[in-house]
Amino acid sequence: MVYIPFDIILFEILIRVNGKSIDQYKCVCKQWNEGLSSWSFEWLHVNYAKEYLVIYYSCVLITFKL
Question: For residue 32, which of 8, 21, 23, 28 is within the disulfide window of CB 3.0 to 4.6 Å?
């Protein structure tokens, strides 16, 4: 099994997830709650949302760089 460090999950994967799902992921464990509630994650998440237009269409994620 491959181990993925929490920082990679947080700052490379979860910044691409919508806000409603982020609230659900905060319930996974204490470490996820703290990481997803940190100011650095919230800042990156907001800036990613501003930089990319993300469209969900028929279960396919399409991302456009603005």
Answer: 28
pTM beyond 0.85: the answer is no
Structure tokens at 21: 């799902």
Strand pairing of 60-65 and 52-57?
A: antiparallel
Of the candidates 52, 44, 60, the one whose C-alpha atom is nearest the C-alpha of residue 12 is 44
| Helix (H/G/I), strand (E/B), else coil: 59 | coil
DSSP 14: G
Give which of 36, 5, 1 is closest to 18, Cα–Cα. Answer: 36
